[in-house]
């Protein structure tokens, strides 16, 4: 009687309540031939989950493991699979979760190229900036650039790419490609037209100006933005040269701006030719400066979080014959992601309609070309950021001045919270002819 009673009680015991949660792959998803399964199970059985496994087809147990967690890869040929993830508990019960997948041999991925722009005209040194995503649960393995079919010129690990490639003049049907950890890949074509270099390539160059000790720094406070040298803590600024990392050349310069007053700026100026020359070219007889008409400001800059910058400003200035030529260029970042140029006659910034989207945690390459025309007009010729060239060909009139020489400026603008931030400058070159 006792044995019968025990058997009766056991046979009528309710099954334990259990669930199987599958994190990957997603039900109904398209996947590569290497499929990552991630799952866990719970049960009301007091003795817990015994094992968990995967059926790739009815009756075909492809994988099992003790315990209540599963993380493994299965290799499946292309096709549609009605897979099942199942758990078994220590009370004799089990539960399942069906997962239908479509194996296509490659995970779905996407490559987004920030620079150069498709069908753009670029100089011989081209900056490639790109990122990638993939439906592969293990993510993107690497990215690369093909200048031509079968010619892999550059690769980097991970889902981001920032590189410079050198091309001879011509048209190139380049391709940026990503490879994921599931055996899949995706591409983005980028056709570029490479010219012979900048128009100022035959001019004379001041190189690595970021290391020059002749920079003068100042703060600038709203609303008038007059330069001040003793306005801390309302605005703070600093310049530190010879930084080894981050750096391209091995010696960059870090500039910082901060303080207590919103929308305050840090400003730096360098006198290259003429009055107060830092390059040994005072041009006291005034024979050099009047002959100069074409200028190129070329610099690399890096910021860990450029989104907190209200704007970055890069200016070329020439003072000659009693006239002031100020080619001001401002990349509004928090201020609207657009390039503005300075209208000195009207005393305000002029929007260009050209987008300015520098990349954080990467080196950005900027080249600005301007000209003093034969009729003494300011010609804003072009802006090239990370290989993408915008041709402006915008003309303005000069103003009057008693200054003499050629100078350049660099400026960092604070945002609404005056969030402190740093920018590193490297390979800062200035060409004049």
In short:
The protein is mainly β and 433 residues long. The chain has one helix at residues 2-11, and strands at 18-24, 29-31, 34-43, 49-57, 60-66, 69-75, 79-89, 94-103, 109-115, 120-122, 125-134, 140-146, 154-157, 160-166, 170-180, 185-194, 204-206, 216-220, 227-228, 236-243, 252-258, 265-274, 294-302, 311-320, 323-332, 338-343, 348-355, 364-372, 378-385, 388-396, 399-400, 405-413, 421-432. Strands 18, 19, 22, 24, 25, 26, 27, 31 and 32 form a nine-stranded antiparallel β-sheet that branches. Strands 17, 20, 21, 23, 28, 29, 30 and 33 form an eight-stranded antiparallel β-sheet that branches. A five-stranded mixed β-sheet has the order 2-8-7-4-5, with no helix packed on it.
Topology:
Layout: H1 2-11, E1 18-24, E2 29-31, E3 34-43, E4 49-57, E5 60-66, E6 69-75, E7 79-89, E8 94-103, E9 109-115, E10 120-122, E11 125-134, E12 140-146, E13 154-157, E14 160-166, E15 170-180, E16 185-194, E17 204-206, E18 216-220, E19 227-228, E20 236-243, E21 252-258, E22 265-274, E23 294-302, E24 311-320, E25 323-332, E26 338-343, E27 348-355, E28 364-372, E29 378-385, E30 388-396, E31 399-400, E32 405-413, E33 421-432
Parallel strand pairs: 2-8, 10-16
Antiparallel strand pairs: 1-3, 3-6, 4-5, 4-7, 7-8, 9-11, 11-14, 12-13, 12-15, 15-16, 17-33, 18-19, 18-22, 20-21, 21-33, 22-32, 23-28, 23-33, 24-25, 24-32, 25-26, 25-31, 26-27, 28-29, 29-30
